[in-house]
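TASK: fixed-backbone design
INPUT:
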């Protein structure tokens, strides 16, 4: 049986790793550089990051291949190296995982292409599907256990990614970033994501939210996802470590280990079974999350008010979805008698 699926079946939760890009900046990556090139230029630094997350308690490490499609790599004149860089990224993570004293899942990270899909842009569904399939083939050859699609925003790109990922026959996970008033930048709601995954021929085995605008908003997305997807869905929560701030000439995230520990407990109580961190999440943060989850007895589903009280404010859009005041298909607000009323602009 596939390692990822077996561990999901055996355990109440799996802890995913923390940030790749923001931690690589600490290791010397420069703004504008392609992290994927480090899979061949500095493999020891990538291995060290994976090892730090394993040491902190991660059950899942994601490969350093987020921008590994030809469309992203062409920005660095590396579009001909898709297979090489994805194989290399997967092999680095696989070696670290296989040296651990416990079972570690390797997820093959696939992020957005950076292109607009038809009808808004030039990229066709078939071209997008082929690009994701090309990347997935390299990740599968390198030894990943699961293809991990993350930070998606548009329905068109998510569909193409799911179909491309399914071509290699591995389990598929997908996450969106609900960073725009309870929706993705291109309008997907948590309920939309649940419907997309239910309808997809790729049959993703887990789905959820990553990145975004902080831990509170992500837990709100998990609450709304669990409402739409039902109790049997395997949900993924991978929140940014607080909010980015400009400090001493660099962007830093303000989330503390204590905040991320509380986020992990709330995400688990809200229905997530795979919990990790995204931008700004260091091994120190992840260690606090591991300790929190290992000593946590699952509690009742938290209210949105409890999430706000413990983690911070939540967008009005996410609040409206949680209260059932938004038609998630049209985006219209609805009155108490459930009749749609004119949609108003809301602040984030």
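OUTPUT:
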């Amino acid at each position: 049986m596939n390692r990822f699926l077996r561990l999901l079946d055996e355990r109440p939760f799996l802890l995913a790793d923390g940030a790749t890009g923001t931690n690589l900046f600490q290791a010397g990556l420069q703004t504008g550089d392609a992290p994927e090139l480090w899979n061949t230029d500095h493999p020891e630094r990538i291995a060290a990051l994976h090892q730090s997350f394993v040491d902190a308690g991660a059950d899942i490490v994601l490969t350093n291949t987020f921008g590994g499609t030809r469309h992203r790599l062409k920005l660095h004149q590396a579009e001909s190296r898709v297979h090489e860089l994805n194989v290399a990224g997967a092999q680095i993570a696989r070696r670290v995982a296989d040296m651990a004293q416990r079972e570690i899942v390797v997820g093959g990270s696939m992020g957005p292409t950076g292109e607009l899909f038809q009808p808004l842009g030039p990229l066709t569904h078939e071209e997008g599907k082929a690009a994701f399939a090309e990347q997935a083939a390299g990740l599968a050859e390198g030894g990943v256990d699961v293809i991990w699609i993350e930070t998606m925003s548009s329905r068109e790109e998510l569909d193409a990614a799911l179909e491309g990922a399914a071509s290699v026959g591995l389990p598929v996970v997908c996450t969106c970033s609900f960073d725009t008033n309870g929706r993705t930048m291109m309008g997907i709601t948590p309920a939309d994501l649940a419907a997309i995954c239910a309808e997809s021929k790729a049959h993703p085995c887990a789905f959820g939210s990553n990145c975004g605008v902080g831990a509170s908003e992500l837990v709100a997305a998990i609450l709304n996802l669990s409402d739409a997807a039902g109790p049997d869905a395997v949900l993924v929560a991978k929140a940014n470590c607080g909010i980015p701030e400009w400090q001493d000439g660099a962007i830093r995230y303000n989330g503390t280990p204590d905040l991320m520990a509380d986020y992990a407990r709330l995400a688990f109580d809200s229905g997530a079974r795979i919990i990790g961190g995204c931008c700004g999440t260091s091994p120190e943060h992840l260690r606090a999350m591991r300790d929190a989850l290992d000593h946590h007895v699952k509690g009742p589903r938290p209210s949105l008010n409890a999430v706000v009280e413990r983690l911070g404010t939540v967008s009005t859009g996410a609040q409206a979805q949680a209260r059932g005041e938004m038609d998630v298909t049209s985006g219209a607000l609805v009155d108490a008698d459930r009749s749609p009323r004119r949609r108003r602009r809301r602040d984030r």
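COMMENT: The domain at 3-304 is CATH 3.20.20.330 (TIM Barrel).
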